[in-house]
Predict the 3D structure of the following.
Amino acid sequence: MTKYQLAPMFFALSDPTRFAVVERLCRGGASVSELQRPFKMATPTFLRHLQILEEAGLVHSEKNGRVRTVALRGKSLVAVEKWAAHLRREAEARLDRLEDYIKTKED
Amino acid sequence: MTKYQLAPMFFALSDPTRFAVVERLCRGGASVSELQRPFKMATPTFLRHLQILEEAGLVHSEKNGRVRTVALRGKSLVAVEKWAAHLRREAEARLDRLEDYIKTKED
């Protein structure tokens, strides 16, 4: 997964409703009405949030009869994790090199 | 760091300019003009992007004379990484339990 696909994920996660839905889904899939229950918002507004999450690749949904079930795409979170870890490691390596350099000067 | 502080970080990272600035900064701090160079945009627009990054806690900046230097806050990326890892682990643990349950049924 390239960095270009991370931007829609970050946008999707920047909203408190969508963030809460993602956290709820890590405990297992749920129907749309089950997911909507804790939120005081109109169904079309809530469905729009789910659409943004689905377009970002964070969740996928499936319709069985009249019930739509939503589940987390675990791999998308792995992409976020890997990206943050990669940047952190690069930044740490740079600090280590700086420390080594300072030590050389002190000797 | 609580989950409430993650939302502004995710919003800050959802823009391609700001995302690129964060990736650039993991290779070391830079002056504002150095950071702005690759982008074809007016200075006030670019400064607004930096402000969003700074308010989200992803970067910090310091003015020395006439030059403002920007650097990454490594800890903020650790927060993103930990959050994604935590959710992934929860989702994986749930899958493991499901697998165990299926095996019990098969025995």
